[in-house]
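I am still getting used to backbone structure tokens and would like to learn alongside you. Label the sequence line and the structure token line clearly, so we can match residues to local backbone shapes. Go ahead whenever you are ready, and we will take it from there:
>
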Amino acid sequence: MRKKTIIKCLIITTIIIFSGFSQQNKFPELTGPYFGKEAPLDKAVAFVDGIISVLGEHEMCAAFTEDGKEFYFNRQFNSNWAIFVTREINGHWTKPEPLPFSGEYTDRDFTISTDGNTIVFGSDRPAAKGGSRKNKLDIFYTKRLSEGRWSEPENIGAPINTDNGENYPSLSRNGNLYFFSQRTDGHGGCDIYLSRLVDEQYTTPEVLDSNVNSEKNDWDSFIAPDENYIIFSSQNRDDTLGGMDLYISFRETDGRWTKAVNMGPRVNSKSGEICPSVSPDGKYLFFTTTRRRNNDIFWMKADIIKEIKRKIIKNEN
């Protein structure tokens, strides 16, 4: 009798333990646009804290598709960086998972075309299947085949990729590609380049002028869909608040860029800020920061972009 009682207690204990484990690992119910969350106006906070930005883990880069039904981000995975996705299906967001092609190599710093059908990203994967892993990053792209399925990534090739390494691509609505590289024709360190899409071909990249680039490292640029502004990260400028801050420059009517300005303490901190992006509806600014030690995705309302632009126009007048 005593033996049966002990066995029964063990079974009940096991059920309780596994039940608790299952509850802890069950993905919470998240519904509605932006996972049912709303970003603050004056202070950036962790995006979907504990689900997307997880304390103690590493996440960076953020991109919604234009319909707001898919969210992509980078997470460290199997000692590499992988591109993860979560989708809103029947009103509920799915648990984030790596894209089928991502995880074996480092795949990071990506952009999604405005139609949601192309992902462009930096990777150290071989240029061709069967080749060896690279010791630098090239820019690759993949095309959507169907719901949840993507083509095998392809190296974007020349004239974009060179032996200098290229990363953090950003696409405008018309297909123009912005990225950073460390080339001999730059201003010093890493610089931001533009390659225009003309007749379905990318032109020789041109380095952006000194109103954007500096003699420091300038990288991780997000170009607005209409190319009216660019947000990027720069390292150790004279007005920096931390090691790497976010800056913004606006395109004037004559096509020139305004002198880039630091986005200030509402965005930047004593920690590093990189990987900026803006939601397709223009409502929210996303970026990556190390203010919680590891890389986390933070967000805030994007009103600050218009505020900075008004100040620049006022100062010019």
Notes: Residues 9-24 have pLDDT under 50 and may be disordered. DSSP finds two helices and 24 strands in the chain.
